[in-house]
Amino acid sequence: MKSIRPIVILSIMLLFMNLSVSEAQTTANISYTVSFPEAQAHYADIEMHISGLKQNVLDLKMPVWTPGSYLVREYAKNIESFSAEAGGKPVAAPKINKNTWRIAVKGKTAVTVKYRVYANEISVRTSYIDASHGFLSSSGIFIYPANMLHQPSTIHIKPYQNWAKVSTSLEMVNGDPFTLRAPNYDILFDSPIEVGNQDVFGFDASGVKYEICMYGGGNYDKERLKKDVHKIVEQEAAIYGENPNKHYVFIVHNHLRGGGGLEHLSSTVLGASRDAYGTDKGYQSFLGLVAHEHFHLWNVKRLRPIVLGPFDYDNENYTTNLWIAEGFTEYYQEIIVRRTNLYSPENYLDQLAGEFNILENLPGKNVQTVAESSFDAWIKAYRPNENSNNTTISYYNKGAIIGMMLDLEIINDSKGLHSLDDVMKYMYTEYYKTKKRGYTDAEFKQGFEKFAGKKLDDFYKNYINGLTPVDYNKYLGYAGYKITDELADNNDPALGLTTVTTANKKVIVTSVSRGTSAYIDGINVNDELAAIDDNLITDASSMLNGKKTGDKINVGIIRDGLPLTLPVTLLKSTRVKYKIEPVDNATPQQLLVRKKWLSL
């Protein structure tokens, strides 16, 4: 018998140590109590109790980001008064990095941790607490034990004063709405909690109980919303052939001016303007937001890029596929509402033309590919600066356009037999349900090719990983449509900048577009536009009145407090404004594609 080397002995010892830690992890019992003794000052107090410990060291961590919102937000910055005790005695809990606290628990089977969270940022992805309600964006509220993301936990809510309702997709314990159960931390961090006196109403659709929870009031019509949201839910479920939830919650925050949404596994948080429901534009915009975030319960939350789950809550999670995850969802948000007949075909085409205009008026379309836009979301999409329009695009916007292109390509090539719907259902079934994992870039490409009936190497080279201008007329032509630029004959001059007028009537430059008069001749962001040819500027909208393309003008500016005159040659405005129109004498094939595409 050969002797065992020391390194082998050490390896065996480490193996048993790891098994011991794993066993400890599976038997730990974790609970939280959330109270609001100073809700009026935007605070929540958290008490976390962990028992069944067997390890020597316990690291507690706060996520640095929220899944679905690709920015490191450093939630630990809002924590204060962090302390720990065991057996009724204080124990040291030093912070060892930006989001981790370390507690020595050798010989201790249980520990209690207390901390406060300051929550005063109104958005769909951050917690906000005041005397009227508490919105808990879970990944910014609950710390978790390192290496225990699989552990279940119980959350006890102690409401502030007269708060009487809890809205969340987490399941109640023993029918108590103030006691909730999370089967693991991925689900806890994907389940926001609204506490207060929100208006709650709902409906059943696709065998699922839906709740709409309205905070902040508003001129919404409950019965109309229930009917129209029901239609959207049914249309989206029909694409995938199932609704994977038992219970789904829309948490809606109505403010004077609000917007945005964030998807979750079995819920979503929406921002809305409380008085916009009464206008056609406002109501349709809200329905589009509903359709977008609800569509995510399949696309992203279950059918997902392979790197987006299991999540790394300490670091960025990079993918080049947000043009599918978010862009296709943006495409579907409008086409779904069209399918419900809540949009007319003309309304839908106007919305689509708006997407074209956004992309084509961005100089960044010649710089950043849609794959790069996805990958760099962490450092660019959520951190725009004054030059972003010149260097970046949105994976939402261009991804929606690519969704349209592929949808029309598949419908046309299959003579109406297939559409992008078939790709989405196939990928959902193949990767989420069967393989139980996310997809790679190459695998989704194969899914497209399966229903397009051809290789899409050139499409990917040109439009996903390249900067080839979109051939709108080619793809719209499949359905018998074309684009027309309403500004094509406009020869008006433009400086190529945007401005803001301050309270004391100063006109300040906020952005300058690449290749324009202002860009070429040196007008900068933060310059104050003072005069043109010695005529004082008081109104930015009229400062070029009487000027023509080709004119040479002198622009007086104030830069860093000093006057400066810049000679500028006025160039023609490069802006486009597309509209979508039917072609003359559409062929039977074009009409077939049009009918399939627009659900006519």
Description:
The chain has 600 residues and is of the alpha+beta class. The chain folds into three domains: 27-197, Immunoglobulin-like (Sandwich), CATH 2.60.40.3650; 307-481 and 584-600, Neutral Protease, domain 2; 493-572, Pdz3 Domain, CATH 2.30.42. It contains 15 helices and 32 strands. The strands form seven sheets. Strands 5-4-8-2-1-13-16-15 form an eight-stranded mixed beta sheet. Strands 25, 26, 27, 28, 29 and 30 form a six-stranded antiparallel beta sheet that branches. β25 and β26 (507-512) form a beta hairpin. The longest helix has 22 residues, at 6-27.
Feature tags:
globular; six-stranded antiparallel sheet; 28% strand; Neutral Protease, domain 2; alpha+beta; Immunoglobulin-like; eight-stranded mixed sheet; 600 residues; 32 strands; 3 domains; Pdz3 Domain
Helix content: 25-40%
What is the CATH level 1 assignment of the largest domain? Mainly Alpha
Strand content: 25-35%
CATH homologous superfamily grouping of the largest domain: Neutral Protease Domain 2
Largest sheet: 8 strands, mixed
Average predicted local confidence, pLDDT: 94
The value of Rg in angstroms is 28 Å
Determine the N-to-C terminus distance: 80 Å
Oligomeric description of these chains: single chain
What spatial order of strands do you see in the largest sheet?
5-4-8-2-1-13-16-15
* Low-pLDDT ranges: 1-26
Number of helices: 15
CATH topology of the largest domain: Neutral Protease, domain 2
Task: Please tell me the total number of domains.
Answer: 3
The computed structural class is: alpha+beta
Strand elements, count? 32
CATH A-level architecture of the largest domain: Orthogonal Bundle
